[in-house]
Every structure is written in structure tokens, then in C-alpha cells.
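Worked example 2:
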Amino acid sequence: VPITMVSLTPIVLQVHPSVAAKSVKELFELARKDAGKLTMSSPGPGTTNHLMSELIQDKLNLKWVTVQYKGNAPATNDLIAGHVNFNFDQVSVALPFIQDGRTRALAVTGSKRAAGLPDVPTFAEAGFAEIDGSTFTGLMAPAKTPQAIVARLNAEMGKILADPGVKAKFQALGAETVPMTVEAFTKYLEKEDATWIPVIRKANVKSQ
């Protein structure tokens, strides 16, 4: 039973500094010119990071090599070391590496620029409005939880997520608190299913 969304974290496309592309458009042009030569690190099949890659390849008719890792730490380590060319990651995870120059950010998802990356355009600003997606966290309850309890939890979480101190802590991590009504969160989940289930099926994504 959906109760409320808690937070949204945008996804950033980042490359190793050795990659010639200085913009997302240039990276996609490289991918189109040398189909199947660029390498992208993924923390595992079916993760948001991986599905963003599959979504873009499908929508823009691009092709690169996806290197699957068992977790985000080894995937990030190999990007920093230059063993792969780029990846998609949560801003909250990638921000320290971008800030110290170990990776270069090209674009972020979302309707506005990430607070920690004010100079990095959104995909829409870069000319790719069809590319979007975020990592979200939400609160759920067991099936058949009484409606009164769901409503109470939703109201209390709404108060917590509206607290300036709580909001500031999420923002420091590159995320944004997004309290929702039960109805709005339910519709959001349905929309996510409609977006990602076709991507999963078309790419034949299997869990490891």
C-alpha cells in the first residue's frame, strides 16, 4: 500500500576526464559515430542507472557496451580509473567525484538543475527533453493496512518532510524531499511502471 514519496534524487551522466566529449550532445555523437565502442559501467541489471542507459539507447537509437558490476562501488571505481568511459549515477553518489575532477558531469535528469551542480544542464536544456528519470524513495505499508493508519502515516510523514532541517539534510545529499498524497504517490508508481516495464522487457533485463 503506497503511503507517500519521501525523496527524489536526479541522475547525472558523467564521463571519465579522458573522454573527448564536453557535452551530452557530443557524447551521443561519439556513440553514433562509433557504435558499440563506448563503455558504460552499471552497478547491476535493472538498477535505475542501468535502465537509464537502456532507455536512452532505445529512444535515440544509440549503442554502447554495458559493463555490469556487482554493486555501485566497483562500477564507480572503474570509471574513476578510466577502465570505462561513462556511467549514469545518482547525484548524491557522484557529486564528490565530479567536484574534485575525477569525473566530468554532462547532464542531469529532472526539470531543474541539481543544487550541487548549478553549471550542469538538464537533459531538456541540452536538447533531449525525452530523457528523464530519477531514483525515488517512498514509504509503503503491508497490503490491507487500514485506511485510517495509512492516512495517519501520510500526514505525519508530510510534517517531517516539510521540516526545514530535514529538507536541508536531503539537499546536502543531492536529493529533494517530495511528500505526496496517497493518491498522487499511487499515480506516480503507475507512471513509473508504464515507463520502465517496457524498457526492461525490450532489453530483456534479468536479475543476477
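The chain has a mean pLDDT of 95. The chain has seven helices and seven strands.
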